[in-house]
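JOB MANIFEST
job_type = single_chain_structure
chain_count = 1
residues = 385
[input]
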Amino acid sequence: MTPFPCQPQNTSFFQLLKQTPQLDGRDSRGKYHCIALVITGLTLALCCGRDGNLSSLHRHMANHFDDLCRVLQLTNQRVVSRPQLPRLLAKVNGIVFADLLFQRFGLVLTLQQQAWFALDGKELRGSIEPANKRGQACVSVVAHRGEAIAGQAYYNGTKESERPVATQLLADTGMHNQKITLDALHLIPLTIKTIHEKGGLYLVGLKANQQILYRPWVGSSSVKVADYDRADKPERGHGRIAQRSYSCFAMNRHPLALRWQTSGMQTLVRVVRVRQSLAGLELSRETSYFVSNALVNQQGQADELFDAVRQHWRIETMHHRRDVSLSEDRFRSSQAAVSRLLSNLRSIVLNVLGQDKVKNMVARMEEFADKFHVLLQFMTLKNVL
């Protein structure tokens, strides 16, 4: 069984936010604005393509405030002012909000039939201050099938590393026992050992800087016949033709170094990607390597790993949508809490609109921008309102 969206609950997401007092970090005195209403208003603004600028998001929320209150059956509410908005957002408990988000819009995981997920990080470029080269960064876990976001965590790129954040994210989301694809940054004993011991499968990039693994295994694969291989059909696009060929080799022919012996490594996967011009001239040839704890005894098992390599780039598609469709990189904020909260709201938009089988996400967002009442109906149907 593949992952699927959590089943709708009787309580709407707005009511869930409203009924969670731990979400609001403000002092109990002088609370003039409903924090659940503000979050919901911003989510609707994101669905209408108003991302990239907090003032634009605020204007949309203010322009449609009365309509939203009418649907939610709220009275005596007033719009938060533009100067007050970032201060209010900074008081939202990000950990509590993320738990509520993925409890409602996340994925149901099963141990019996595991699913493939990709893990990778992304810089929130709008959070980078002028004197720095790094800012806030987001680590996401995305389903290969459907591109639903199953979990997110954040870290400060100027002070922290992605590796421990990614390891903790897998633990917090319970995904150590699933099937995970990761890039070469996460080829460290702690991460892959934990996945292996929890009964999950990993497929991790292998690069030359991991010399203890790279030299013997890559060298061996260059002179031995692959246990299983596959050549995909050429793909035509962007004025060129690309073709991928895959091979996998058992890794039990040579002993592993001590630090890797508990990682469960079984298989080396080699991917060769050749790009040619339409005239047949070879433009580039790229060879990549991956290691996995999956034991391959038949072609079907090899094909699953080959497909997982290809599907890992689903997470890059998700990042592209965040940047192009939702303008994430254009959103500037010097407050980490605000950048992280808006990033989580984008995940709601991606997961909710990604379930829509009638129209693609861009078409839906354009319709919502023109017809706000359609958005209200859609979000009510999805149990957001």
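[summary]
Residues 13-104+334-381 form one domain.
The chain has a mean pLDDT of 87.
exit_status = 0
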